[in-house]
Amino acid sequence: MTASDLKRLPLEDLHIAASARFGPFAGWSMPIQYPAGVMREHQHTREHVGLFDISHMQLFEVSGPGAADLLAKACPLDAAGLAASQSKYTFLLNDKAGIIDDLIVTRLAPERFMVVANAGNAASDEAQLRELAADFDGKVEPLDRVFLAIQGPQAAEALSRVGIDTEALTFMTGVEPKPGWFMSRSGYTGEDGFEIGLPESDAQALVNRLLEDDCVIWVGLAARDSLRLEAGLCLHGQDITPEIDPVSAGLMWAIAKPVREAGRFIGAEALKSLVAAGPSEKRVGLKPDGRQPVRAGAMLIDGAGKQVGRVTSGGFGPSVQHPVAMGYVATALAQPGTRIFAEVRGTRISVDVHPLPFTPHRYRKG
To answer: 280-366: which CATH topology?
Structure first.
């Protein structure tokens, strides 16, 4: 895909004016970093507020009398059991229980839900939901919205100063504060924060007002990646894929036992078998010795040189001041403190299995 083929963010002019450096991601031209640099963007988000343009992600409204049943078939999710404004992390699974995409579903009304999907999977997600909708009395509508993330310990105060009240929201809840708007208390950094979908005309004004606040700066995709990696959060296409199941990925906390037992969702039988057999490998945190990051794709080996796993995400953690990574290792080696090795350009680097997350989550849960 050439640069001219990439999709453009609705607010691209604002990023150009902010001297962003762009790069390709999931078919989009995305701001990778700004003049402040990745380290400062990362730390500013941990200490104050980072503003992220995540308009490459797709919002879907799923509505109608059969909307809850549609989502319960598509995902391992009790959609009918969600309270008003409750959000839930879930998945689209294939017949083998591989993760087609990870989603956040929010109940807005008895027969209306908001679904947030990843950029690279939006088209296939829409196709699957529409195909299922034919068997239910439901409607799937992609929404044309700017999508912004406001993340960090001062995010609520920054939004309050521009007239947006967040006090009613706790972690993993969402509302429609204005016509055409959707706001949830969620994010991809491990910090308290919000994600807001809104019309482009409203977004321009909101961004300009937020950036008048000294505690708010633009943050690009590079720091978004280091933030989520420190927080132990998965990136679809790397840490989770259609070939990786929720059992191996350590994500079964997102699938309630009654949902598993009812088995109404696609991939239910395969997932039941995987749970019964137990995983042959597990997703773990990895802490390399020294200062050299271990990147995605590196092979993990034991002392005898036998491959025992692979790195799926890796980089440097500015908050913890050492390299951080995630990957999959044989189940017998998944205990924290286990020492293995990563092969990086012919060099063997010692790596310890490390608990996730590397930095504690600071969500507002109550």
So the answer is: Elongation Factor Tu (Ef-tu); domain 3 (2.40.30)
